[in-house]
Design goal:
Layout lengths: L3 H7 L17 H5 L1 H5 L11 H30 L3 H21 L8 H5 L14 H10 L14 H12 L3 H10 L27 H9 L36 H10 L1 H4 L5 H32 L11 H6 L7 H9 L3
Helix pairs in contact: 4-5, 4-7, 4-9, 5-13, 7-8, 11-15
Length: 339
């Protein structure tokens, strides 16, 4: 497999594939660890709806684990210049994401009063602390250095997130693959040779101190430093870094990249495999946006504008994430496509 994370997933304690050898005949329940699964829902109240709340979120985490597993394979295949096979696994991720978008509405079968019957017992835990969702964001290119600060007390999750933060994003790997096939894709002046933003991709070994610095207020302006990934052309739009020049037009590197990317759509027969993979990456981006939109609507319907259990602004924070895009160039080039 393509990574230690994927390999760990595939191997049980015995070290063999997916759980290893069995002393007794394999059964459905023993293979899937059904009895163990059923004991993982540890409620903090006796409220009827708390198992629903737990199972929905545990199910999300299992799907997140599989998404990460598949995206690792996609990344490996792009490094090997195999866009067609990479797209095979991207399509699987897209189908999983469609399931996640629809799944969240099961929570709407729980009334506001029912949720309030046990919500106070969840403090200070928060969905904000889902390390696997942050891992998916980092892999897709949405990288905000400040997010690492929320996981420093969770050493295993922190180490994984630091590694993901410093790895090339899916967008960068896609661009490197295109460049290996003759495309010219100049990066913004804020990016390193690897294509990531100077502010979003710190020097290895300095990530922890960088995360702490990012969370400190600007003593001159009183504002919190914005160290997210907007300077990266494919790494997301979480930063306030302006992508236009002083005249208000797109910066020259962005225009040059879009002109190159247009080839995928103007010459689809020649670049079919790259085009199809680009569209699957767009599908992922769109479905993350749809999931965020559905999520904020469901949360507002259930708890209104109450603060999040972890201390966030709740719906206010969730709404602030709705404009984030993993692959901004792919969205922008739509404006430049012609018949």
């Amino acid at each position: 497999m393509s990574s230690k994370t994927s390999e760990d997933m595939r191997r049980g304690k015995s070290g063999s594939e997916y759980g290893g050898t069995h002393r007794s005949p394999l059964t459905y329940n023993s293979y899937l660890k059904v009895h163990d699964l059923k004991n993982l829902q540890v409620c903090r109240s006796e409220h009827h709806d708390e198992p629903l709340f737990i199972i929905i979120h545990q199910t999300y985490e299992l799907w997140f684990k599989l998404i990460i597993h598949e995206l690792d394979e996609v990344a490996s295949l792009m490094k090997q210049n195999k866009p067609r096979r990479a797209n095979f696994y991207m399509k699987r991720v897209v189908q999983i994401m469609k399931t996640l978008v629809n799944q969240i509405h099961i929570l709407e079968t729980m009334t506001t009063k029912d949720f309030l019957g046990f919500r106070n017992l969840l403090n200070p835990a928060s969905g904000f602390q889902s390390s696997q969702f942050r891992e998916i964001e980092f892999m897709a290119g949405l990288r905000d250095l400040r997010m690492l600060d929320h996981f420093q007390e969770d050493e295993p999750a922190y180490k994984v997130l630091v590694r993901r933060f410093e790895e090339p994003s899916l967008g960068e790997l896609f661009y490197q693959m295109l460049e290996a096939n003759g495309f010219k894709l100049p990066r913004d002046e804020h990016t390193k040779s690897g294509g990531e933003s100077e502010t979003s991709r710190p020097v290895h070994g300095d990530t922890a101190s960088s995360a702490k610095a990012a969370a400190q207020p600007d003593t001159k302006s009183g504002a919190t430093s914005d160290t997210s990934s907007g300077g990266c052309p494919f790494g997301g739009s979480t930063s306030k870094v302006d992508t236009t020049d002083s005249a208000g037009d797109e910066d020259p590197n962005t225009i040059a990249r879009i002109r190159e990317l247009k080839k995928l759509y103007d010459e689809t027969d020649k670049y079919a495999e790259f085009h199809d993979l680009a569209e699957s990456l767009m599908d992922l981006d769109e479905l993350i946006l749809l999931w965020r939109n559905h999520h904020v609507v469901v949360v507002e319907r259930i708890i209104g504008f109450k603060r999040g259990t972890g201390g966030s602004q709740g719906v206010g924070y969730l709404r602030s994430t709705l404009s984030k895009k993993c692959f901004p160039d792919f969205w922008k080039l739509r404006t430049y496509l012609e018949e």
